[in-house]
Amino acid sequence: MPRVLLIEDDPSVREGVALGLRRRGHELRAVESGEAGLAALGEFRPDLVLLDLMLPAMNGVQVCRRIRGTSQLPIIMLTARGDDFDVVVGLEAGADDYIVKPARTEVIEARIRAVLRRLADPAGRGGTEIHGELAVDRAGLTVVKAGRPVPLAPSELKLLLHLSASPEQVFSRQQLLEYVWEHSYHGDARLVDACVRRLRQKIEDATGSPRYIQTVRGFGYRFGPLG
């Protein structure tokens, strides 16, 4: 079972989530601060981080950015405020998904498995595709731009592989949400938009005039034209 690092300062939430996931077989380390969470990364070596957004001292966004500075480890944000600006900031910082508290253990477990599936097999297997300066290796699950590796988080990689597999095809936000995040309900398009913005920052020369990921206003996104 995946090893989970839980960073949560509320004792009741921390104990409840830890108990529920341990009962499902996860090896879990639970800490109460961002500093303790960062310290535990090297020692515990988790497969995924559950990260509270509203932590004291070093908040969840700061912790997420610190992790993303050195690792593409999957991160799921925990927030008590599902509809405010902080959620978008957390996603922009590099979180792969978020869960609004309180959440049942089966919901958390389902999100964990969905995120890890993106890492295990983002978009099937295939060869290397060349799109201008961008080389997408579907077999090796790597992306190189102008000869330099581009580190991508699981959601970013799966989104890019899905879009680039069908150049010029337009995908709605809901279609991308269902494919990448496995949210079958009418979900939160902010997940898609935030992931696209992060991806553009990594693969585009100018995010204001993207070459690879085009916005189709009022609908969604497509890959290309490449020019």
Annotation keywords:
single chain; alpha/beta; 5-stranded parallel beta sheet; 8 helices; 12 strands; globular
Percent range of helical residues: 40-55%
Which percent range describes the beta-strand content? 15-25%
Low-confidence stretches: none
Total strands: 12
> What structural category characterises the helix and strand content?
alpha/beta
Major sheet: size, sense and barrel closure?
Answer: 5 strands, parallel
How confident is the prediction overall: mean pLDDT? Answer: 88
Strand arrangement, major sheet: 2-1-3-4-5
What is the 3D form?
A: globular
Rg for CA atoms: 17 Å
The number of helical runs is 8
Rounded to the nearest angstrom, the distance between the terminal CA atoms is 45 Å
SSE pattern: EHEHEHEHEHEEEEHEHHEE
Itemize the secondary structure elements and their pairings:
Elements: E1 3-7, H1 11-23, E2 27-31, H2 34-44, E3 48-52, H3 60-68, E4 75-79, H4 85-93, E5 97-100, H5 105-120, E6 128-131, E7 134-137, E8 142-145, E9 148-149, H6 154-164, E10 171-172, H7 173-181, H8 189-203, E11 213-216, E12 220-223
Parallel strand pairs: 1-2, 1-3, 3-4, 4-5
Antiparallel strand pairs: 6-7, 7-8, 8-9, 10-12, 11-12
Helix pairs in contact: 2-3, 3-4, 4-8, 5-6, 6-7, 6-8, 7-8
